Fold each of these.
Amino acid sequence: MAAFSPQSADDISIATIRALAADVVGKANSGHPGAPMGMAPVAHVLFTRFFNANPKSSKWFNRDRFVLSNGHACALQYILLHLMGYKLSMDDLKAFRQIDSLTPGHPEAGHTDGIEVTTGPLGQGFSNAVGLAIGQAHMAATFNKDGFDLINNYTYVFLGDGCLMEGVASEAASLAGHLQLGNLIAIYDDNHISIDGDTAVAFTEDVEMRFKSYGWETLHVDNGDSDLPSIYAAIAQAQLSKNKPTLIRLRTTIGFGSKQQGTHGVHGAPLKADDIQALKTKFGLPADRSFYVPEETYAAYHAMATKGAKLETEWNSLLASYSEKYPAEYAELTRRISGKLPDGWEKKLPVYKPTDAAQASRKLSEIVLSAIVPVIPELVGGSADLTGSNLTRTKTMVDFQPESTGLGNYKGTYIRYGVREHGMGAIANGLHAYGGIIPFVATFFNFVSYAAGAVRLSALSKHQVIWVATHDSIGLGEDGPTHQPIETAAHFRALPNTDFWRPADGNETSAAYYSALTRKQTPSILSLSRQNLPNLENSSLEHALKGGYVVHEVQGEDLTIVSTGSEVSIALEAANVLTAEGVKTRVVSLPCWSIFDMQPTEYKLSVLRSGAPILSVEALSTLGWQKYSHEQFGINGWGASGPYKKVYEKFGLTGSNIASVGKKVIAFYKQKGGEVVSPLAKAI
């Protein structure tokens, strides 16, 4: 292990980062200067000695990944990106936290060049980093060959006390230790300060002992304010740990150099002007200059950028040699990096006829996965300890495990997440961010709520994560209200850039997977039943891929019933009852609202048309159905424990009762008089 070699620009560069942090936050009059000032030394050592990346080619596949989990400290990351030469100018730093700037209040992937994942909600970035590390381990095991160490990057993550207090980080850390992710290096900013003041008021555990119990290597640096050799040695030692992730506990002084250093006063508020001037004077910088960067600082960081460009050139040459010796593997690797799905994969999707046997949509999901996993190797899936219920592990899949466990290997594509729903969701975001992987994850639909923070960041960050969410209503029966998701669909239907699918049969389930796999910037939640669902008379992939379509058509209808999932067949039963009584009833299946909303207005108005009242039926909360129906029937309380058919009867979700409700709706609108206009007919 090479020793630390001082550079003449070290002290002035660290001082520059601290002063820039004060200036950036000060000009915005908003932000968090303390952590950037405290972490300036470790950031400088990492980015001028270890970090391999090419700012001029920020998506180079074998780049090291950096995650700022304590995203409130983003002034630090923006400063580093600017110094390295990413597409972030000094003017961008001056526009910190302003409308439409490239330097928003927390880092946003896809918005700012060089940002790998969106961070801010504490603990999420750390958990994303675990996903990035799993992605590297899997891709390396799959594609590296003797003499071709193509994929060998590290994932570095900065985190603070707040990240460690969040449960999602505990879930991810526990799994990372089990998986022996030696490519993951976490640097914990132990500054003893949170918004409420000294962490002693709420957070006094021994973090190093905790992470040792998870199976991590733990190191510490007691003077993170100025002991650059020890910082360097800790990171170098962490790189040597090949079968354990590493946590480096770095003791720092928040807001180092300011009059308020070491207090919560410098955590989330700008420094006063006189404090900034005194800070600059103390560090030998011109007190009368803002946003000042000496040339030697730029030179130190540009040297690392030049090194990164050279490394990418060498990597491209290695890849070219790889293509000659391993053409099939090369074609597969480059296809996966590009995000292009294999040709003809969609032909593997199952197609059903109405005469085919009724099956639970969770089983239909398993049939789809069994058909497509062999032809889409980038599908890396897992379950939160519910594999046998979610039906997500196909016969061809091998577990992703360290070989030393005897349970699988890193080439494996099935991850045993354990009972860690939130960590699973956040890790999946990191897997997608790494590239070359389409992650799917699974649990009971009710417990996707446990992972809501991660799902929200999937949507915001455009991560293509597929949730297999089984046992999706009161239809799960005996487990009762604690497991029956009444409100969950309304929550995720309200989430922008999220496709919530509730398929009613086999063709709709295949369509949901087709959409989830082709909507590359959108997470999808597949809400799947425990109970058997009959195949519908007018369903097809083409129809379902419009998000909504007419299952049973009649002209001159008295009523339209619109429904999803397991209730569509109940709506059809109700229509049969009404038809026998001379009441003309249409039935519409609306498996995905967000996809339906994208269709042309003319089509939408042909499905949910004017002329007769529209009644929605779903074994969930009715919230949101007002957009698509005149009247709503559902569950606006809790479910119940019992055999699922009995539970459905209790809540009136039977063909006979829905027929009775339908007649009441028809009578009301006839008495009311006037034209019945589609609820979709709106001014805006």
Amino acid sequence: MTRSATPSGAAPAPDTSPAAAVLTVEGLEVSVRTEAGLRPLVSGLSFTLGRGETLAIAGESGSGKSITSLAIVGLLPPPAVRVTGGSIALGPTELTALSEGRMRAIRGDRIAMIFQEPMTSLNPVLTIGTQLAEAMRAHTPLSRAEARARALEALRSVRLSQPERRLDQYPHELSGGMRQRVMIAMALALRPEVLIADEPTTALDVTVQREVLDLLRDLQRELGTAIILITHDMGVVAEMADRVIVMRDGRMVEEGTATDIFTRPQADYTRALLAAVPRMGAGRGRPPVEAAPIARLSDVQVRFDLKGGFLGRVQARVHAVEHVSFDIRRGETFALVGESGCGKSTIARAMVGLVPHAGRIEIAGQPLEGMDRAARKALHRRVQIVFQDPMAALDPRMRVGDLIGEPLVIHGIGTPGERRARVADLLTRVGLLPDQMGRYPHEFSGGQRQRICIARALALQPELIIADESVSALDVSVQARVLDLLAALKREFGIALLFISHDMAVVENVADRVAVMYLGQIVELGTRDQVFGNPRHPYTRRLIEAVPVPDPMHQRPPVPRLAGEVPSPVHPVGSGPARLILRDAGGGHLVAAE
């Protein structure tokens, strides 16, 4: 047994005998049509998936992991990409021979998929409740009321705060982590035989990630559901997987049990992947940076009006950020961590003038409040931001070279030839090829698109980079290279970094100081050694204890689940924020902050 025990007991051993195989892939070939002919994307891939088994597929971006999953569910983009050989069988049913109509009846019912990018997977013009109900009614004879009730139950199962309200909201009104939880709820609602999870916890903080992984295990225990887990998080692989397939350039380079892969890897590529995994404790001992601040926030508040009624008056406000104060020193990495929706990204947007705020924000001694247009343009040379969702941040109509070089054009830097050379250098430094500058964003994988966003942010050589989950979509080897790149740029140019992340292991490895946020407020702030070595706040301890460990034999202590509803950041007009209190299921104090 390779999986660690859960609070409710260990999962039963999966039946991986050939007779019990729920999914069989034999000699799979997937190719893309180019001007020069067919080019293979996946070659000769074979594996079986047993009932109740979790099979993890790991590898770098572009290795063929997601293409394999799309081939299984019949969602390869036609006509350019298609299965050109091999077999995919769900029990006795050969999926590659089915019409789209018959495949549609299986997809979502017997095979469900959690996609990597929730914002591009959810319909922006339909409410969350409508989309959940639509997915259920496509396979089950339910009335609208019954489907809505089931949708509400599904949102509660993934612990989405205020689930009744979320039913009537649109995707853009939710944070990235909230949108991913909606996708997980949609996939689990019909209790499929096979669940393909493509980076299911990438956008989630560690505590919600832990709860989601527990949910997946609960589903396996109840129905014997088989899971294909595609992830770059080797801690999640170690905790969840029975077997692991390592892929590179569309081919399998190694397959084995999780214990064998982590303790006795045979391939050099597998060993390199494991060596790049960030581990808790590896970053301790560095002295804090002592320098003048490049940015200072004093008593910053961000609130959003909620209007309603016949006259559209303001009836309540979302207290997104409440009385936040900190500074970021030149050349340091200041990390902001906390659960989805706690206000981390809102602070980032306030610092570059994208959302209105109260309080004071200074960049290089200049207050952001009252800046004219010219001053704001100058500010953007000093501060750049890398957003969480790379597909939403890149214009799909522009070529990658033009996207990266656009800041140089806007600020009148260099000749066309010099700008092109700068773009080529940036692409190389983030692990891409200069000849890729003529491609469009949709021609890259999710991890490659995030590297493009980082290259764009580096174009102006800013003094402060705000990285909002900038490495969350990257596999561990590319993540390590990008973090090394950012560290090198910090040393060379004295760049400061506001590092927003839910990955506590990465934060512990890169941060000089750390601020922990909950519902818009900072509950703990200190040096990396103070926060990770001796956390004072119980909420901080909960975040650290929930971090997956890249060791399949590690038995993590149970993390108490929260009892009751998560407090709401929405308050009536004229009222202040509620006292923040959370308790664990046993009634003990977990979080308390004014």
Amino acid sequence: MLTPEGPWVGLKDFLRGLDAKCRPGDKVLGETAAERDRAEEWVELFYDKLFWPAVQVYYHFMLEHRETVTRYALDRAPNYQKFIVRNAFGLWQKAMIKGIGLEDFSLQAALDSISTVFDAVETESAEAGFLGGATPGDLDIIFAALAGPLVLPAEFAAPLPAIEELPEGYREVVSRMRDRRAGILALETYRLARPTPQPPMKRERSRGGLANRLTESRAALWLARALARRRSTILLRGTVLAVNWQSVTEMLERDSDFIIGPINAPRINGVSGPFILSMDRGDPDLFPQREAVYSALRQTGAGAARDILDREARALLEEARGRNGRIDVINGYARPIAARTAAEIFGISGPSEADLMRVIRSVFHETFLNPGDDPDVQARGRAAGKELMEWFTAEIARRGDEPGTDVLGGLIRAQSSLPLEPEAVPWMAAGLIVGAVDTTATSVANSARVILERPKVLRAVRRDLDTPAAMHGWCMDALRHRPHNPIILRRTRHATRLAGRDIPAGASVIAVTLAAMQDASVFAYPGRLLPQREMCRYLHFGHGLHVCAGRDINAVQIPALVAHLLRAGGDKIVSTAARGPFPDELVVRLGDM
């Protein structure tokens, strides 16, 4: 199984990898040391004595029956594989014999090995009924799955032949195994644990959302430069687009004319509660929340973030180099590190790291990246927002009179001295943490991708890997070419003008920050990457009233993670993929250091 951390190869690697992803209470291999030791012993037995012998028995008999074996072996296989096997069956048959180790296969030895496992299962489950007790547990499910070729359960995940289709010798083996108590246990486990067949597993792929489409091609970047050079605003189907730097920054600075509430408030309130990114000037909670947020972030600082990301980045990169010399910069590197940093800084981690990342991405998607009001995205986002609120509420209650020194603790203390209700604390905490993971992961991936796609730039950047200020400059300018957020949405409060254009009340206005940051009057030689540009000109993290509260932390995390990646030998992009509006895969080769 391919994962962001690398491939899980073989039964034991798969089970241990899956176990590591599970939350406490749901671990595949058990919760206590004794449970895990017992599970490891059973897994070793299953792997050594059952797994391969069961597969070998199946193909020992079935490979001599071309029509039947291909009917099931090729189910849901790609068309090209079906064509090859059907037209070169003899070659495929020889390859299978060699690959599965059937050249010197002994049926009796395989059946003896399988019988050893069946004997052990029957002895262990004799008193309780199953290995897991009165009902099937994880070990029963593992055993039943591996015994599938021997008992042919109707609920098996992949199609298996009916017993009537089997060659006589194999039919006798299956009948004998089904009659044994361990075989009955396996069939009963399927009946109880999987009452309906498992649907085919598939990996969702996506062309990507608007942000990915706007930044994916050089043509889009060329168009953005042309627009910024020739126009201030554009009218497109009733929506006004601000495209050069002057019009974009003017629009964002005039926050009483171009407001954020109608855009963000319904979504933010739907997933948590009122937060500063859903408030306009005049909202009584805006400035008290801003003071609470900035005070909490100042007290926490970026030092903790740097310590965590340095340690975790080195560990993940070293592991990747030793495994296969590749790393998925998003889900195998930047995103988990950002989640671990956020858990430390904000003081909440959820039941597991996977839960934290899932919830934050779902809330982020609904809150900021669902302009079409997709009902599925909204449902996932609101459900995730409810989970997040429950985590924060429980953590606040647990702390009692000792709020702590992290961001959550700072918000608790600030709330007591500002005109804010107690429920504003989880609202503010949720609003902050939601932008702390995927924003960082996307920004690291996008800036790294721009640098890696340009060999001359890569050589120049490598000379600055140990200079944080220079790395910050390189990353910010790389993001100018592939920003994590190429547009910002606003709505007019009343009829107004922008760059000489009349705009009616209630009109949608889009600040195309991608184009604004290609404006040659502000960014000289916009096609080049220059790390010495003035930081105040970038629009990556907003402008005006609503700027990203975590921009100081991002200024540390993003260049540091890119520097660690390049220092570890990152030199070539292997593959990329998107999932909805999020870049979801950026596999990079780790070459010579």
